[in-house]
Design brief:
single chain; 406 residues; Rossmann fold; Dihydrodipicolinate Reductase, domain 2; Alpha-Beta Plaits; 36% helix; 23% strand
């Protein structure tokens, strides 16, 4: 029998305990070992919980117990979670986590410690919730040079955008629903402003391209600037607005990575990834294109990925699984503003100004046509240009929205 401990009894941690209990038999079969939750660490009390007898408040109880071979970190953030992960690895325990903030900011260091101690640090649930994506990249697709990876990486914002499209519901009301359903982060700013997706695309870029990408140094734009007018204009053009994380290789050993709302064609598979679902597209030079789809957030889907990592850690108590990336050099990540793309623009400027800046464009809305659009508003798609070139062209114009087109 192998003993494990769970750190943090919030949405994900309690989901892990429940799935471990509910599927104990099949988990034991798949791991070829019985796995027992020996401790659950939390500072709160949970009277009446079926796991009340496992609760501890002091991490050193877990750290000093040689019977605990695997620690599940579902505290979140990069404070206590970092300290306890490091101490658990140094104590020779494997650690499994769903914590994208910690993996994206300290992953390199923690993986190095895991390597030194010959234990595993596994984080399948950190990207895409229940969708298998870390293991496919690090195992199934390793014959490829991966050129590009992009996708819908945040369930909360996809849920909000989907309901804006289908119900025309107000933003605040939809966000409350997402929180109630357990999709949103403790502080939903991380979802809404794109930081959560940034952490995830950085983890994917670390793994796909082999060098660390700092989520605090990439361009990040969330969905708070997306209006119902934008949603409607995009629809008329044959597009849907989705928040995408994107990373791809550039010539000269560089890459770019960023998060921003995009107009994506309604004919693409990704445009039909709705609600809390996530979709991730990987392009490999041998494989071509491949898409991963599934529940990107929520208690049980996330617990599904965490528990699978626990089983993997138990099956690899003696053999370390290779997982890691190198530090990157300055200039490795090219700013998203320097990469060319087509743009959607919604402007309160008149036809003359638009013509002067962009020449002939196909307008996709007309003054006063959309209720609430104001006396004069136009929207159109541009040719390919960098964000900087776009800003220069738009100098002096009244720009209401500008989003990339995939
Ligand atoms: N808040 C995250 C999301 C949870 O909405 O995608 C899963 O990482």
């Amino acid at each position: 029998m192998v003993n494990i401990a769970i750190l943090g009894f919030g949405t994900v941690g309690s989901g892990v305990a429940e799935v471990m209990r509910e599927n104990a038999q099949s988990i034991a079969h798949n791991a070829a070992e019985e796995i027992r939750v020996k401790y659950i660490l939390d500072i709160r009390d949970f009277p009446g919980s079926p796991f009340a007898d496992k609760m501890v408040r002091d991490f050193s109880v877990i750290e000093s117990d040689p019977d605990v071979r695997v620690v599940v970190e579902t505290i979140g953030g990069a404070g206590k979670a970092y300290e306890f992960t490091k101490r658990a690895l140094l104590a020779g325990k494997s650690v499994v986590t769903s914590n994208k903030e910690l993996v994206s900011t300290r992953g390199h260091e923690l993986l190095e410690i895991a390597k030194q101690r010959n234990v595993n640090y596994l984080f399948e649930a950190s990207v895409g919730g229940g969708i298998p994506i870390i293991r496919p990249i690090t195992q199934c697709l390793t014959a490829n040079e991966i050129d590009e990876i992009y996708g819908i990486l945040n369930g909360t914002t996809n849920y909000i955008l989907t309901r804006m499209i289908t119900d025309g519901a107000p933003f605040g009301e939809i966000l409350k629903d997402a929180q109630r359903l357990g999709y949103a982060e403790a502080d939903p700013t991380a979802d809404v402003e794109g930081y959560d997706a940034a952490r995830k695309i950085c983890i994917l870029a670390d793994l796909c391209f082999g060098k660390s990408v700092d989520p605090e140094r990439i361009f990040v734009e969330g969905i708070s600037g997306v209006t119902l007018e934008d949603v409607e204009y995009a629809r008329r053009l044959g597009y849907k607005i989705k928040l995408l994380g994107r990373a791809w290789r550039l010539p000269g050993g560089h890459i770019t990575a960023y998060v921003a709302p995009h107009l994506i064609s309604k004919t693409s598979l990704l445009s039909n990834v709705d609600g809390v679902m996530n979709g991730i597209v990987v392009h490999g030079n041998a494989l071509g294109e491949c898409m991963f789809y599934g529940a990107g957030a929520g208690k049980r889907p996330t617990a599904s990925a965490v528990v699978a990592d626990v089983i993997d850690a138990v099956k690899h108590l003696k053999a370390r699984k290779y997982l890691g990336w190198d530090e990157s050099e300055p200039g490795y990540v090219v700013d998203a503003g320097d990469v060319a793309t087509r743009w959607y623009l919604r402007t309160g400027s008149g036809l003359e100004e638009i013509g002067r800046a962009f020449g002939r464009v196909r307008l996709i809305s007309y003054p006063g046509e959309y209720p609430g659009a104001g006396p004069e508003e136009y929207a159109f798609a541009t040719d390919e240009m960098t964000g900087r070139e776009l800003s220069e062209k738009c100098a002096g114009m009244e720009v209401r929205s500008r989003f990339r087109i995939l």
